Amino acid sequence: QVQLVESGGGLVQPGGSLRLSCAASGIRFSRYAMGWYRQAPGKSRELVATVSTTGSSNYADSVRGRFTISRDNAKNTLYLQMNSLKPEDTAVYYCHADGWVDYWGQGTQVTVSS
């Protein structure tokens, strides 16, 4: 049974930081490209960042320079370090595993507000 379990979301003030984690089980984690997506109320789900099996990363223009995606294959865990958060970063953040079959986590809420 495949599970992607996100954690680390919450309420933070503008300019603050959060670190999201995604714990994977039931897949050969090191063989999957991984990514973070987000969906704000009334909007479509959008790509935030991806990291390949070799560690190459890619970012949406809106988060480049503020967010950092990383993976720890020994711990089967994906991370997203989010700095200088803005109110427009408010969304549900989803972990995604990209392989023969795609898998999604259940999402974690991030709210940026004063």
Brief sketch in words of this structure:
The protein has 114 residues and is mainly beta. The protein is built from no helices and eleven strands. It starts with a strand and ends with a strand.
Give the SSE layout:
Blueprint: E1 3-7, E2 10-12, E3 18-25, E4 33-39, E5 46-51, E6 57-59, E7 67-72, E8 77-82, E9 91-98, E10 103-104, E11 108-112
Parallel strand pairs: 2-11
Antiparallel strand pairs: 1-3, 3-8, 4-5, 4-9, 5-6, 7-8, 9-10, 9-11
Give keywords.
114 residues; 0% helix; 52% strand; seven-stranded mixed sheet; four-stranded antiparallel sheet; mainly beta
The main sheet comes to: 7 strands, mixed
Beta-strand residue percentage: over 45%
Instruction: Give the CA-CA distance, first to last residue.
Output: 40 Å
How would you classify the helix and strand content by structural class? mainly beta
Multimerization state: single chain
In angstroms, what is the radius of gyration?
13 Å
- What does the average pLDDT come to? 97
Report the order of strands and helices: EEEEEEEEEEE
Q: Count up the helices.
A: 0
What level of helicity do the residues show? under 10%
Shape: globular
β-strand number: 11
Uncertain residue segments: none
